[in-house]
Amino acid sequence: MSQQSSTLSSESNVRFFLPLLSAIIAITPFAIDTYLPAMKQIADYLNTDMSAMQLSVSLFLGGYALGLLLFGALADAIGRRPVMLFGLAGYGLCSLGLAYSESIFSFLLLRLLQAVIGAAATVPVAGYVKSIYGDNMAKGMSYVSMILMAAPMIAPTVGVLLMGLGHWHFIFYAMCGYALVVFLLAFIKLPKVPAKPLEHSLLYTLFHSYKVVLGEKAVRRNIFIVGLATLPFFGYLTTVSFIYLEYYGVSEQMFGILFAVNICGFLIGSFSNTRLVPRHGSAALVKVGLVLIICFGLALFLVNLWQWHLYWTVGLLSCFLASIVIFSSNNDALIVLHFKEQTGTATGVIGVLRFGSGAVAGPILAVLHDGTPMAFCYLLLGAIGGCVLLMALPKDKRQQNYQ
Asked: Does the predicted model carry a pTM greater than 0.90?
């Protein structure tokens, strides 16, 4: 075991490093959701309209995917620690710049830069989790997933509280301060390990890393499944407001309660996974997760087809989200664990596919929209069918030995 791995995985340090890594990866949901309540204020201040502010969300998602693609391989080439520290510092500076934006152009440009550079902070997280948990990496990623889901639940409320201090600028001051604190903790606590000397140019090394990851037949199926598996989740985020508020006509207060119930399903799935992985392993839990996704997905389709009561939809959605996290966490772990030297690259590929599926979920739902929740159900069934087909493909010898 390397010096870095032994330092991270020692029992006395796990309790510190995992919360630190969770705090680092939380910068993304906080950057996306904290400023949502202030979008109208920001639009008025910058003399623009809401469509431009909505564009800032799309730019952030696109920039984050681009950053994952770039810095994933770079973390493998020059080391996780410098890439992570660069990302935290750059994210903080961009956040401070956003607080002083005086035009929509500068605001959009800084949001794009905040996303691209911020990806450098989060992309090494999976590699560090791998160092801590080894073959039980999915257990650690489940803990991180819980933070990822808890952050969007509280981020809008945090944004409202910060706006109460005076104006929307405090939201971005807070992002900057948060990044500074996490940067200092990471700078002091993350172990310093010399990077492996590059045998070729940096550009060649980056392209070679992606060639290795995408060309590896043993996990190619798992890689392609990433986008399909998370497509229903992004579809849920895109259409949940319509389903609850417009179709079922619940109040905004009730919407908050129902949304929290669904997210609790996701959190329960994450917590359950942390207990199941050490006993059964990720390969077995991928299959279990897929079976659960099929069962709850079909049940959700039938409940909406037969127009049963709202609470059937709420309950089944919670179970479905729990199934997604079990399936996706273990599928991601199988991919990253397979690569000893390209963990950052593999994480970047996973992130690009995941956020790419989020980008196409909205247009697909727009095409399928018929004024009912059935559009989401059709999207869900299509994604499930794709996962089943990929899982059913014959394995070569390396896949059989691996899984």
From this structure: no
